[in-house]
Amino acid sequence: MEAQNYLRKLRKLKRTKHTDVEDKVAKTLFDLETSHKTLKKQLPRFHINGVRIVSSPSLKKSVMVVFYPLRFLMLVRSIQRVLTAELEKKHTGSIVVLVAQRKITKRPSDVYKLQKVQRSRTSTAVFESILNDLIFPCDVVGRRWRCRTDGSKVMKVFLDARDRKKIESRLPALAYVYKLLTHRVVTFGFMWNPKLQQVSSR
């Protein structure tokens, strides 16, 4: 009975065997649901789709990427800081990031069918949403693109300098995860001058 209780926090999109890491995260979510004062109200209707461990010699810590259904996006946004902190306490030595599971619609060859594709399902929109998931709760205040001589592009994302202490130590890991998920290279920086920001300052 106890096994069934914590396994309801894990619902994989494909009927594949769940890994040991996914079991541990599901147990952690179930424990937080029953004992945590802040999270026990929101977590009963929340579950995840899978967990992926990302590691690299260039990173000091491994990264635990937790995927969850897109319909829980607003719920996760409201508790993401607390939930991420609790997961990192339980799984020491790992950086935890929460990413919503999104679907990209293949670009049709027919021009008339192209008009029916939702913008939220295009690769550009999905990759932008993944970036916002990774850097939350920080805001993107500017973007620059640099074209290399080999034809490849590098995107530099500028974050608000007031959030530097919160996220600076995590940026190398976030850039590596973003490249792994989207096959696009991104670098991060901080913009000090509020007059150059592309969004209004808070």
UniProtKB/TrEMBL annotation:
It comes from Strigomonas culicis. GO terms for molecular function: structural constituent of ribosome. Keywords: Ribonucleoprotein, Ribosomal protein. This is 40S ribosomal protein S7. PANTHER family: 40S RIBOSOMAL PROTEIN S7, SMALL RIBOSOMAL SUBUNIT PROTEIN ES7. Belongs to the eukaryotic ribosomal protein eS7 family. Pfam families: Ribosomal_S7e. One of its GO terms (biological process) is ribosomal small subunit biogenesis. GO terms for cellular component: 90S preribosome; cytosolic small ribosomal subunit; small-subunit processome.
